[in-house]
Structure formats: structure tokens, C-alpha cells
Design brief:
8 strands, two-stranded antiparallel ribbon, mainly alpha
Length: about 290
């Protein structure tokens, strides 16, 4: 027997809050990724790690906020704690791999495609692993084509978002990119949910696992607290907020003059080429 699936038990409340969580995580993560391109290698891993955790936490929180509005009319829905935690870990690790590739190789060409693909697959993996942690009196079944469409949406959104982060532009640019990313992540989630159908078993006993209220609400405190902390870091870093379009990357890349950036990214020191030019300006050449 097919179960009656409802993904909007609380109306538009859960989709809207979920979208805001995806936007928040995306905005913080993309700003950290942009910031990593303005500092030397010794500081770069920290910014990239913070960005990875912010995006991973944001999309994970978005997923489970949306799942608070999910129900199957004929069966209670519970969640396995281990699988739920695993989905958060997968999101952070896979998003991190993609972001580190773009952070070190640049947001163009093969690096952008590879990093964006891995990041998008991380978003999709988090979603379907989180779904695998659901426990109910039935079996989850998916439409293959719709699942494939959801993965394509996730990958395309990740590539576009990382490209935007790599443009090293101002704060409003990243805000716009995060709004698009949040929309794409939410679209991926609900496309994946549209692929879902539930085939009920005959059993009427309560399924294993913890109820959403007892598990998801406490679990989301950690990621939400982290997003708040990441937001504080962004707010108190002047270059993160008062971004300028003429920022330059920390390392020499095709088409960008070589220069050295202060480890904190707050100033530039003339590179070897500039110093040589200054030394050559002897009085007889003035």
C-alpha cells in the first residue's frame, strides 16, 4: 500500500525557514572562500575550513528544518541518530574538498568544474543519506530520473556559487550568490522529495529511532551555534564586509600582476618586481 506523503505539514513556514538557513550558510561560506583568496597560504586553510563548515552546516540545517514539515499520514516518522550525524559529516567533508580545490587552484576551468561537482555531490549525498536515516513502517522508493535531476541541480548550483566566490568582489555580490545558492539547494531538496514514494508495510508498531522533536531540534543547536559564530567572524573582519571590486588575489594567477599580501590580508607589500624598479630610480635617471 502506498503511503500519503506530505512535505508541507506546517505550510510555507518550514520551506521559508529552510531557505533562509541555506542562504545564511551559503553567504558565510562563500565570503570565507572569497577571503581565502586574499591571504597567503599559511592563513588560507583556516578560511577555507571555516567556509566548508559554514556551507555544510547551512545545507544540513536547511534539510532537517524542511524535514520537520515532512510526514507520512499512515505512519510516524523517526530518525536514526548515527545516520543523521553521518549526513552532517559527509556534507562538511565533501563540500570542504570542493572548496579547497577552488581555493588553491582558482575558480576557473577544470578546478572550478571539479570542485563544484564534488561540492554538489556532497549536497546531494547529505540529502539522501539523511533520508536513509528515516525510520517508518514502510520502504522508501525513488524515481531515478527525478533523483538524477536533483543531483544535476545541486552540482550546477555549486559550480555557479563557487564561480561567484572566485570573482573576489564585494559583499553584495556574495549576498546575491548566496540567495541563488539557497534557492538551488532548496530546489534540489524538494526535487529529491518529489522523487520519493513510500510503500507501507503491514506492521502498525512504532518504528525504531527517535522522533523528530526529540532528535532534530537538539541536534540543530550545534550547527546553528556554529553559523552564529561564523557570522561574528565575518562581521568583525573589515575586508569581509567592506569588499572592493579591485581586490587582488594573494598569489600570481594568469593576468594578475605578482605582489605579496600581508598574512592577514589587510595590506600589500611591494613584490620583487616593484622593489627592483624603485632601486633603478637613481638620481641620474630622475
Amino acid at each position: 500500500m502506498q503511503g500519503t506523503v506530505d512535505g508541507f505539514s506546517y505550510g510555507l513556514v518550514t520551506p521559508l525557514v529552510a531557505y533562509l538557513m541555506a542562504c545564511l550558510g551559503g553567504a558565510l561560506g562563500l565570503r570565507c572562500t572569497t577571503r581565502s583568496m586574499l591571504v597567503t597560504r599559511s592563513w588560507r586553510p583556516g578560511w577555507l575550513a571555516l567556509g566548508s563548515a559554514a556551507i555544510g552546516s547551512g545545507i544540513w540545517t536547511m534539510h532537517f528544518v524542511a524535514m520537520m514539515g515532512f510526514s507520512v499520514r499512515e505512519s510516524p516518522v523517526n530518525y536514526d541518530m548515527l545516520m543523521t550525524f553521518a549526513s552532517l559529516g559527509v556534507a562538511i567533508v565533501m563540500v570542504g574538498i570542493g572548496i579547497f580545490i577552488v581555493g588553491y587552484r582558482g575558480a576557473s576551468g577544470t578546478a572550478l568544474f571539479t570542485g563544484g561537482t564534488i561540492t554538489g555531490l556532497g549536497v546531494a549525498s547529505m540529502h539522501y543519506l539523511g533520508m536513509a536515516g528515516m525510520r517508518l513502517n514502510g520502504k522508501l522508493e525513488y524515481n531515478t530520473l527525478t533523483v538524477a535531476a536533483s543531483v544535476v541541480i545541486a552540482v550546477a548550483a555549486a559550480i555557479a556559487a563557487l564561480w561567484a566566490a572566485g570573482q573576489v568582489r564585494g559583499f553584495l555580490w556574495s549576498v546575491g550568490a548566496s540567495l541563488v545558492m539557497g534557492l538551488a539547494v532548496s530546489g534540489m531538496h524538494y526535487t529529491g522529495m518529489a522523487a520519493l514514494s513510500v510503500h507501507l508495510h503491514g506492521a502498525t508498531s512504532a518504528p525504531a529511532g527517535d522522533s523528530p522533536a526529540s532528535l532534530l531540534a537538539p541536534l540543530m543547536i550545534g550547527p546553528l551555534a556554529f553559523l552564529l559564530l561564523a557570522g561574528v567572524v565575518v562581521m568583525f573582519d573589515p575586508l569581509m564586509v567592506m569588499g572592493k571590486p579591485d581586490w587582488s588575489a594573494a598569489e600570481q594567477k594568469p593576468g594578475i600582476p605578482a605582489h605579496t599580501v600581508h598574512p592577514t590580508g589587510r595590506g600589500r607589500v611591494p613584490g620583487p618586481r616593484s622593489r627592483h624598479h624603485d632601486a633603478s630610480r637613481t638620481p641620474q635617471n630622475w
